[in-house]
Amino acid sequence: MLLILEPNTDPKSDEYKELVAYIDKIPNIESRINTVKGAQQTLTEVYLIGDTASLSTDDMATLPTVERVVRISQEYRVLGRHDMDTRACAFDYNGVTFSQDNLHVFAGLCAVDNPKNVETMLKALKEHGQVCTRMGAYKPRTNPYSFQGHGDSCLPWVFELAGKYGIKVIAMEVTHDNHIDEIAKALKDTGHPTGVLLQIGTRNTQNFELLKAAGRQQEMPVLLKRGFGITLEESLNAAEYLASEGNSKVIFALRGMKTNMGDPHRNFVDFSHVPVIKRLTRMPVCIDPSHSVGSRQTTPDKIMDVFHVTAQGVIAGANMVLVDFHPDPPNALVDGPQALHMNELPYFLEDVAIAREAYEKRRALSDAFHK
Ligand code: PEP
Ligand code: MN
User: Fold this and answer.
1) Strand 29-37 relative to strand 42-50, pairing
2) Separation between Cα atoms, residue 138 and residue 70, nearest integer Å
3) Mind listing the domains of the chain with CATH numbers?
4) 273 with 232: CB under 8 angstroms?
5) Which of 286, 293, 303, 253 has its CA nearest to residue 269?
6) For a pocket test of ligand 1, which of 109, 134, 142, 173 has the largest count of ligand atoms closer than 8 A to its C-beta?
7) Which atom of ligand 1 is nearest to the CA of 255?
8) Strands 285-287 and 320-324, bridge-based pairing
9) 82-91, 268-277, 300-309: which has the minimum mean pLDDT?
10) Contact 323/347 with Cβ under 8 angstroms?
11) Which atom of ligand 1 is nearest to the CA of 228?
12) Rounded distance, CA 353 to CA 358, Å?
């Protein structure tokens, strides 16, 4: 059972203390408190776990500071959308709002290679009004002899360059809990010129200790990729690990499934699941067209498959697009063949805007129909 408290409830108030004291006395019930700080208000949710079947939602709704009571299913307690409840799930990070209602493009390098390429990318993003990017410092590679990323040594200059070009959020993969500490330390040492969205990749979707570590810290939000060979339910449970440890600032990313049925794409594009994630959970949904398609192949209309699948995800309501670009793809150290080129950045952004506009029109049409 979930108790949603009145916005901005003060944990030091007598009413709040009375509520907590009441809950503590209910037998066989444990409580967990989740606080979500938004730009306008702070929301407190109290999760009651255990023998909640005997509790009446009407009685619980009369307790001090309680605004609403939702009976939740066992699945995805924090991140789930129980009984189609309409709670907003927006969060702000470093001045950027993430929600199921808006859209951000995270164009950038699959892997950080050198300051020149990083600066070229960031400068182009600024010129096109972008405040988010992707930059991998720790790369999980299939082959142990492949470039593994520069690791923490590149963090200070990457963060300083990001600050120079007004980048507010960098999606950066972590593969070990040490990496989270290294990123937090580098952000602190450089005076927080930017922010980091911790990315947990498809190879680590069920790395539960990594999920717990990313969930224990509540400063940086987390972008969790869907596991490439597990069920959707298993991946959504992995996301819930983050929230169960205290970090509900989670974005869920679709990046294609590993199966030969997806050939000739690198993975079987799964962006038809954008609405499914929105129905089952309150997480913003990201699509990664680069790692799904894995090539620059085009159709006879000269539109690349990467553009087509991006449009398919965005027109279905995706909230974030993670996409590989590179200033010098033949010399990129990771994933050069799938990278978009710098002169394609405004073209890509415009194409995304067209698809987003179409989604917004579809939403207005649906609202009119259901009025
Ligand atoms: C990536 O985004 O760089 C990446 C490695 O993606 P995935 O975990 O989806 O393979
Ligand atoms: Mn890659």
Assistant:
1) antiparallel
2) 40
3) 2-72 (3.30.70.1140), 92-369 (3.20.20.70)
4) yes
5) 293
6) 173
7) 9
8) parallel
9) 82-91
10) no
11) 9
12) 9
Predicted pLDDT at 42: 87
Task: Give the CA diameter of the chain.
Answer: 68
Distance CA 58, CA 39 (A): 31
Which CA distances in Å does 129 have to 163, 206, 211, 227? 14, 35, 32, 32
Residue found by looking up tokens 């590149």 in the block = 154
- Closest protein CA for atom 9 of ligand 1: 202
List the end-to-end C-alpha distance of the chain, in Å, as a whole number: 31
Report pLDDT digits (tens) over 209-233: 999 999 999 999 999 999 999 999 9
The three-class DSSP label of residue 58 is helix
> Which residues touch 287 (CB under 8 Å, ≥6 apart)?
253, 254, 255, 271, 274, 309, 310, 313, 314, 318, 320, 321, 322
Q: What phi, psi does 340 have (nearest 5°)?
A: -80, 155
CA 318 centroid distance within chain = 11
* Spatial distance between the Cα atoms of 240 and 75, rounded to a whole number of angstroms: 9
Helices (H) and strands (E) in the chain, counts: 11, 14
